[in-house]
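$ run holo --ligand "manganese (II) ion" --emit tokens
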Amino acid sequence: MEHRFKDQTSRGPATWFSGEVWLDPVAQGHGATPTTVALVRFAPGARTAWHAHEVAQTLYVTEGAGLVQSRGEPVTALRAGDVVVASAGEWHWHGAAPNHLMSHLAISEGRVEWGEHVTDAEYGGGSE
Ligand code: MN
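-- output --
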């Protein structure tokens, strides 16, 4: 049995995120597929850049209120308890709502292709 205190919290890099984002790695797969689980905390207004995952990614919203958008589709609201699956190769972003913190678990594997930051105009299409 391994019992340890979590690894240190790190700031989400500005190349991948807008605003204040904190990352806590929780788990890494031990089998052939390198799945990772991370707790990601977004300050109000903070969000990822546009990106696409090599393998589908699952998000589980643990706290707060957020927004998610798939390219070409409307911005939709997220709240605690929601599960979102981004398909392999699907360009999207996720983040906090303008006036709320949002935390999600991100279950990911494979590489991530990163694109442009989400502009205020794109983000402003949100539900608040
Ligand atoms: Mn994603």
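-- notes --
The radius of gyration is 14 Å.
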